Each structure stands twice: as structure tokens, then as C-alpha cells.
Amino acid sequence: MRYGIEQYDQHGFLKAPIWLWLGCAFLIRAWVVFVVAGASRQEGSQILQYVYPNHTMLYLGLMMGLPVVLGMWLLGLRTSESHRINYLVSFFRGTSLIVVGLQLLHTVYLIRLEHWQFSWANAITLVLLVWFAIYLVNSRYVKDCLSAPKRIVPENDPSQTTKP
């Protein structure tokens, strides 16, 4: 047995590691800012104006983060009977890697707009995105956590038999 019993949830799936949740939270940072701004009512527009002075960048961040938000939601909905959800969750790792690549390209574009001047925010963003991409590619635990379980069909199940 590769993993301890405490690493499984009540449905028999591996629990998602905390680093996966934190990395996904970083990928959906535009959604976090949007929700915080919406929850703060009067100061919401000021928060959005301060963090995203260009509204196009907010909308772009929301669009890039949407697949990750949906993947996180589906990850929480997994049960042993929900075969479609389990199948969709198996694509979450690849989708997250695509989003990381898009955000890397977006950050490089922003750096180019600043005439390649150093900025701590852009540097930290690049380092965290590269780290998360390496983590998604190399982590066996993430691969096992997000893989679709094999469906076991009983031998005497009449719904799975074919008639000649």
C-alpha cells in the first residue's frame, strides 16, 4: 500500500494535497479579488481599481481561472457513484498545466509592457507559476489523487452484457 489510510476520504479517494489547493488558489487569484471586492460593497470598486486598474486584465484573469474553479468544485463533488465527475476530474491536472502556461505567457506579456524592468510582483508570480508547474508534473501524489478510478463491473450484472 503506497498511502496511509488517513490520506483517503470517506469515498475512497485520495485527499487532494494542501499544495495543490494552495497552487490552485494562486491560479484563481483574480476570482479571489473579485469575490472580496463583491463582499466589501462600498469599497469593492476601489479594491478592483487598485488591484486591477485595467479591467481587461481582471476579465482575462477571470477567464483563465474559470477552468481551475470548475476543477476544484468537481474535485469536491467526487463520490464512488459519480463516474462522469470522476472522469472530468482526471483532466484537472492537464487543465491546470494549461492555465499555468497561459498565466506564464500573460505575466511575460505584462513584463514586456513594462519594458522588461524588474518588479517583485512579477518575479514572485513567475517563480510561483514555474514551481506549481513543476509540482503538477512531478508529484506522484497529485497524479494518483486526480486519476480516474477503474470501474469494476460485476460478472453477473445483466445491464453490462451484450446480446447477439
Radius of gyration: 20 Å
The general outline is: elongated
- C-alpha termini separation: 41 Å
Q: What oligomeric state do these chains adopt?
A: single chain
The portion of residues assigned to helices is 55-70%
Global mean pLDDT: 88
Total E-strand runs: 0
Unreliable segments of 5+ consecutive residues: none
Strand content: under 5%
Give the structure's gist in a few sentences.
With 164 residues, the protein is mainly α. Helix content is 65%, strand content 0%.
Structure description:
With 164 residues, this protein is an all-alpha fold. It has one domain (10-149). The protein has eight helices and no strands. The chain has helices at residues 18-27, 29-39, 44-51, 55-76, 83-89, 92-113, 120-138, 140-146. Helix 1 crosses helix 7, helix 4 (55-76) runs antiparallel to helix 6 and helix 6 (92-113) runs antiparallel to helix 7 (120-138). The longest helix is centred in the middle third of the chain and has 22 residues, at 55-76. It is elongated and about 65 Å long. The relative contact order is 0.13. The mean pLDDT is 88.
Task: Sum up the structure in keywords.
mainly alpha; DUF2919 domain-containing protein; transmembrane helix; 8 helices; transmembrane; about 160 residues
